[in-house]
Every structure is written in C-alpha cells, then in structure tokens.
C-alpha cells in the first residue's frame, strides 16, 4: 500500500437534508498528529463522526488501505479507531477504573483466551496509569467526582485501552483552564511519540493544537480553506487572524 495511513478524499456528510461537509480531503501519515481547526459550526465534529462511523459519509476514508465508510462505530473501533467525543462521554456513576475497563471491552471480542486477555488488560491499565498518574490516585472514585481536566484524561485513557491505531480527539480543551489543556496535550504528544499512535485532534483553541500537531487543516463551512505543516500555519500570522481569529504573533513563544 502506498500513500498515507489515513486518507480522506471527497468526504461529504450531514444530518438528513442538512449537508455539512462538502467534499473535504486530507491525509495523515502513520504516527502523525493532525489538527483540524476552525470556527464553531464549521463541521469539525461531523468530520470525526464520519471517520468513526457515527454519521454516514460519502466519498472515501481509508485507514491503512481499509475503507471505513459504511461501517458502524463498533466496527471502526475494532479496526483501531478510538473516538473521544466532544463532552467526553465517560460514565459518572462508574469508578475511574471501571470506566477504563469499559474501554477494553471491544478488544475482548477478538477471540483471545480469557486469561491472557485479563493479563493484557491489566498491563494496559498500568500503561494508562503511567501516562495519567492522577487517574491511578483516583482509580476507585466515581468518575463524576473528578475535575473537568481529570474527566478528559479519563476519556482519553479509556480510548487508549483500545490500543488504537487512530485516536480521534474532539475539542479536548473545552471548558478546561489553559494550564490543564497544556498538560493534556503534552501527554497526547507523549503517547504519540511512544506508541506511534496517529492522532486527529479537532480544536477551536488553535494555538495549543498547533503546538503539538505536525499537520493542520482549517475547516470553514464544511470546506477546507487551508492546509499545511503546523509550523507554517502558525507562522502565517495573517492567515491565522483571518481564519482562526487569533493573534499568533502576539502570543508567539508564550
Ligand atoms: N445532530 C445534528 N443534527 C442536525 N444538524 C447538526 C447536528 N450536529 C451538528 N449539526 C450542524 O452541523 C453543522 C456543523 O456542526 P459541527 O460538525 O458540530 O461543527 P463544529 O464541531 O465545527 O462546531 C452545524 O451547522 C450544526 O448546527
Ligand atoms: Mg464540535
């Protein structure tokens, strides 16, 4: 197979009669972090939903050469796609550890022997706690009692229990203080570097996302209006101001 690990081409998606994505295309190399930026309502969430099968898409989305369109979310999950939705979606009444074990559930069906599977899940719990020591401290607490930042860590930790090939993150910074977001993104970058997990992160907070991304795309009204290496997009102050509504020059080095 030549080409990128994730290849999106001429992707259309929407809700009923409402068309949201009007034929977007981008590719992500294996082990890269790709940021999708853009204003509220641009179609960022819809893009991730189309990738993981939560909404129907038309066009083509291949992961390592395998077509993802036309599959259900549990099928894309089995193919290695882990989707952390906007708003996290963790179970408040379950403990932190129970939430993490839910994340391993889809792997259980791969026909491995029960005992070796238990060992593998235990090892993955350790791995996730290694990335997120705070989750270990709070492993027996109800998820609902965690702070917003800890809940986002839990949502990402749960996704990592799948050992994903492709991690989709939808607005991980939403509602979090900048310092907490920075810490979260640092961990995402570490996971990316240590496990070569390919990441697509959707963000309104362009500055933070560009700090960890290799490539970035700007989405506006369901169309990509700008694509390129993250460095280049960050440095193009005018572009950033026009499309992202941020003053990049003023914040440089901050
Ligand atoms: N479940 C839905 N039903 C109908 N329209 C929706 C639904 N979800 C989102 N939309 C519409 O699709 C467009 C893009 O939304 P979304 O992908 O959530 O944008 P973003 O994540 O960039 O803010 C918006 O106009 C929004 O109102
Ligand atoms: Mg969104």
TrEMBL record:
<keyword id="KW-0547">Nucleotide-binding</keyword>
<dbReference type="Pfam" id="PF00005">
    <property type="entry name" value="ABC_tran"/>
</dbReference>
<dbReference type="InterPro" id="IPR017871">
    <property type="entry name" value="ABC_transporter-like_CS"/>
</dbReference>
<dbReference type="InterPro" id="IPR052156">
    <property type="entry name" value="BCAA_Transport_ATP-bd_LivF"/>
</dbReference>
<keyword id="KW-0067">ATP-binding</keyword>
<dbReference type="InterPro" id="IPR027417">
    <property type="entry name" value="P-loop_NTPase"/>
</dbReference>
<protein>
    <submittedName>
        <fullName>ABC transporter ATP-binding protein</fullName>
    </submittedName>
</protein>
<keyword id="KW-0029">Amino-acid transport</keyword>
<dbReference type="GO" id="GO:0005524">
    <property type="term" value="F:ATP binding"/>
</dbReference>
<feature type="domain" description="ABC transporter">
    <location>
        <begin position="6"/>
        <end position="246"/>
    </location>
</feature>
<dbReference type="InterPro" id="IPR003593">
    <property type="entry name" value="AAA+_ATPase"/>
</dbReference>
<keyword id="KW-0813">Transport</keyword>
<comment type="similarity">
    <text>Belongs to the ABC transporter superfamily.</text>
</comment>
<dbReference type="InterPro" id="IPR003439">
    <property type="entry name" value="ABC_transporter-like_ATP-bd"/>
</dbReference>
């Amino acid at each position: 197979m030549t080409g990128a690990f994730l290849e999106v081409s001429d992707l259309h998606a929407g809700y009923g009669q409402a068309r949201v994505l009007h034929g977007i295309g981008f590719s992500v190399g294996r082990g890269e972090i790709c940021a999708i930026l853009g204003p509220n309502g641009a179609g960022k969430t819809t893009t991730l939903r189309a990738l993981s099968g939560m909404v129907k898409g038309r066009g083509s989305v291949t992961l390592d050469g395998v077509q993802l369109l036309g599959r259900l979310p549990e099928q894309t999950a089995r193919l290695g796609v882990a989707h952390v939705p906007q708003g996290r979606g963790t179970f408040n009444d379950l403990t932190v550890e129970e939430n993490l074990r839910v994340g391993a559930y889809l792997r259980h069906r791969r026909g491995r022997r029960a005992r070796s599977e238990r060992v593998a899940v235990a090892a993955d719990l350790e791995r996730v706690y290694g990335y997120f020591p705070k989750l270990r401290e709070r492993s027996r607490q109800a998820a609902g009692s965690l702070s917003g930042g800890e809940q986002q860590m839990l949502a990402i930790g749960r996704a990592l229990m799948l050992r994903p090939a492709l991690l989709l993150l939808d607005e991980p910074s939403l509602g979090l203080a900048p310092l907490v977001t920075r810490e979260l993104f640092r961990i995402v970058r570490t996971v990316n570097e240590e496990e070569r997990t390919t990441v697509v992160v959707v963000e309104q907070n362009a500055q933070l996302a560009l700090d960890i991304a290799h490539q970035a795309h700007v989405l506006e009204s369901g169309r990509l209006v700008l694509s390129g290496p993250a460095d280049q997009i960050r440095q193009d102050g005018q572009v950033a101001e026009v499309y992202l509504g941020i003053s990049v020059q003023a914040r440089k080095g901050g």
